[in-house]
Amino acid sequence: MREDGPEHFRPFVKAYSTYIYRTVYAVLQSQHDAEDVTQEVLLQIYRSLPGYRMDGWKAWITRIAVNKAIDFKRSRARKPEQLIECQAIMEQGCAGLVEGMLDAAPSPAAEEIALLHEEHQLLVERVHALPPKYREVVLAFYMDNKSYEQIAEDTGLEKKSVESRLYRARDWMKKHWRKEDFE
């Protein structure tokens, strides 16, 4: 654990645990495994913060989460004792128990996945429909999690111009987007 202690870790967990859990769950499709791996990911990210290069925060934490989930999945696939346990249960005549365990594992319904994909596509289309001067700052601020200073440096704008464009972009979205399109 870092020297700055748990009081600095709590806000980090509160801010990112849900996002990381969803990312990990998408790979593992197991609530229990996703919870365990999410905890590992949060700790790994927190411990790795000193090495973070201030470049694409969300992409960085997502990459760590996905890699950790894939590693977990691979390690599970390499453990033959699970197959032996299942075989032993089957030999004892508990096939119904195994089926019940498999049925109990939550998996997102195909309808849910389709709706999420559709919502994501709609959002991407809407963002790309923004006027170019707004789109650039909106993508940098919300998708790449860049600060006003970073955006100003990347675009060659003044910090106040970045703030102004974000404000105008939000105003543009309020006028042109309907809330019910995103519900």
From TrEMBL:
An example Gene Ontology molecular-function term: sigma factor activity
Biological processes per GO annotation: DNA-templated transcription initiation; response to stress
Tagged with keyword Transport: no
UniProt keyword Transcription regulation, yes or no: yes
Gene3D superfamilies from the UniProt entry: 1.10.1740.10, Winged helix-like DNA-binding domain superfamily/Winged helix DNA-binding domain
Keywords: DNA-binding, Sigma factor, Transcription, Transcription regulation
CDD domains assigned: Sigma70_r4
Span of domain RNA polymerase sigma factor 70 region 4 type: 121-172
Pfam families: Sigma70_r2 (PF04542), Sigma70_r4_2 (PF08281)
Domain RNA polymerase sigma-70 region: 13-78
UniProt record similarity statement: Belongs to the sigma-70 factor family. ECF subfamily.
Name under which the protein is recorded: RNA polymerase sigma factor
Origin species: Paenibacillus oryzae
